[in-house]
Specification:
Elements (H helix, E strand, L loop, with lengths): L2 H21 L7 E8 L5 E8 L3 H13 L1 H11 L7 E6 L2 H15 L10
Parallel strand pairs: 2-3
Antiparallel strand pairs: 1-2
Helix pairs in contact: 1-3
Amino acid sequence: MSNRTVRVNELVQRELSDILRQRYQSESVAITITEVRVAPDLRDARVFVAVVGDEETADKKLRWLRTKAADIRAELSRRIILKYLPKFEYVLDHSAIRGARLLRMIDELGPPAAKGENE
């Protein structure tokens, strides 16, 4: 990935988060933009979203976000000047859930044995 693409990813992520916090404060309180991956040609982008709550809440928030996608994209076009503003695909980010499950599994294993205990 080029340095420019990385900078565009970070800029879009920061601005999307800011738009959600300013314009949709009450609805977006449980939503976090975890990552944005813009295609090298800047035509398409994937926005990874983490939602606090159960699976039903996550689906509901993701549907709400998709209904607001056109308004969010219009506001983003006023804030960022790019040759092409990407079309966004909002995707639920499951990495936090997987990480929490992994930590739970590690905790269930118990503390590591001290040196000399198993000898």
